[in-house]
Amino acid sequence: MADESNKQDNSVDTLETDHAFEFPGDDPDLAIELPEESLFTLDDYLNMYRVASTRPGFTILTLLQAEERLSTSELSQALDRESNKLHYHLRKLKDAALIRNRRDPNTGTEDVYSYYMLTDLGHTVLTHGVKTGVEKLAAEEHEIQERYAE
């Protein structure tokens, strides 16, 4: 009979199994205090950063920060991508509460003008999260390389 302690765990972690991981309740370094009346869970906040840190998500958020509001066709033109290829990323950003979609019927034409804008959360995640983190990592890259080369 094979020794049970020598068996390797061949399971693969996927997004579906991520929910199985919990923070140990007694480790204060891992605990995050959320306000009691918070609308979002820790998983919601982590998802915001996950979505914002993809190349398309980051690019769309950055464009919306610079331009304040853009339609799908304006985003498509700025990103040089077909608008139907943007809808997936726009939906992910919208579902994560980082952007919102508004419709303006007062365009002077028969068409309703639909545009996207950053939410306050989107602005915070972009400027105080992803951008700051990337800038800080880039600035400290040499020090990090030295530390891990040892």
Question: What key attributes describe this structure?
Answer:
150 residues; mainly alpha; Arc Repressor Mutant, subunit A; three-stranded antiparallel beta sheet; globular; disordered N terminus
Helices and strands, with pairings:
Elements lengths: L41 H11 L2 H13 L1 E2 L1 H8 L7 H9 L3 E6 L8 E6 L1 H20 L1 H9 L1
Antiparallel strand pairs: 1-3, 2-3
How would you describe the overall organization of this protein?
Helix content is 47%, strand content 9%. By secondary structure, the chain is mainly alpha-helical. It has a single domain (38-149), classed as Winged helix-like DNA-binding domain superfamily/Winged helix DNA-binding domain (Arc Repressor Mutant, subunit A, Orthogonal Bundle). It has a three-stranded antiparallel β-sheet. It is globular. It starts with 41 loop residues before the first helix and ends with a helix. 13% of the residues are buried. Residues 1-13 have low confidence and may be disordered.
Unreliable spans: 1-13
Name of the CATH first level: Mainly Alpha
User: Which structural class matches the secondary elements?
Assistant: mainly alpha
Mean pLDDT: 80
Note the total helix count. 6
Termini, distance in Å?
Answer: 43 Å
What characterizes the major β-sheet? Answer: 3 strands, antiparallel
Total of domains: 1
Assigned CATH architecture? Orthogonal Bundle
- Tell me the name of the CATH homologous superfamily: Winged helix-like DNA-binding domain superfamily/Winged helix DNA-binding domain
Roughly what percent helix? 40-55%
Query: What fraction of the residues are assigned to beta strands by DSSP?
Result: 5-15%
